[in-house]
Structures are given as structure tokens and as C-alpha cells.
Design goal:
Blueprint (H helix, E strand, L loop, with lengths): L1 H32 L10 H24 L1 H7 L20
């Protein structure tokens, strides 16, 4: 029970932090988009390419979170539970 509550609290904090960081990233993206050199449009294949690039970038990030000590210091909270259950997946860093 305590472990699950800890996981829920960490998951809630991570969600709030993610919303704040996501809002800042969206605002910066809109500002940077004004200086775009070209427009890729809305053809279907760009969605496939963006999906694959996004998935590969997450894989590279997660792999580096396990290999690079600086990133591991932030990622280790995800692996810190004494009991492995479904709520353990909620243990995410606020950074």
C-alpha cells in the first residue's frame, strides 16, 4: 500500500511537471516556427516519418538514461520500488 501511494504521488508530480514543461515547449515551438526556412506540409508520409523519428528519439533517450550516469541519476526513481507491480510504472522523474 505505501509503495503504491508513493508511485501514485510520483506519477502525479511527473504529470504536473510534464504539463508545465509541455506548455513551455509548445510556446517555444510556436515562436521558433515563425523562422521556418521551409514547410513540409501535411502529406501522409510525413506523419509516418515523424512517428518513426519520435519513436527512435525516445528509444535513444531511454537507453542513454540507463547508460549515462548523469541521466541515470534522474531515471533511477523509475527503478526504485521494492515491490514490482503495475503502479511501479508510474514512478517517473519530475525532471
Amino acid at each position: 500500500p505505501k509503495d503504491t501511494l508513493t508511485s501514485l504521488a510520483l506519477g502525479t508530480g511527473s504529470t504536473v511537471a510534464g504539463i508545465l514543461v509541455g506548455g513551455m515547449a509548445l510556446a517555444i515551438s510556436y515562436w521558433v516556427a515563425r523562422f521556418a526556412v521551409f514547410d513540409i506540409g501535411y502529406q501522409w508520409y510525413w506523419f509516418v516519418i515523424c512517428f518513426v523519428v519520435d519513436d527512435l528519439s525516445y528509444y535513444a533517450f531511454h537507453r542513454s538514461a540507463h547508460r549515462v550516469r548523469w541521466f541515470w541519476a534522474s531515471h533511477v526513481i523509475h527503478h526504485s520500488s521494492q515491490h514490482y507491480n503495475l503502479s511501479t510504472a508510474l514512478r517517473q522523474t519530475w525532471a
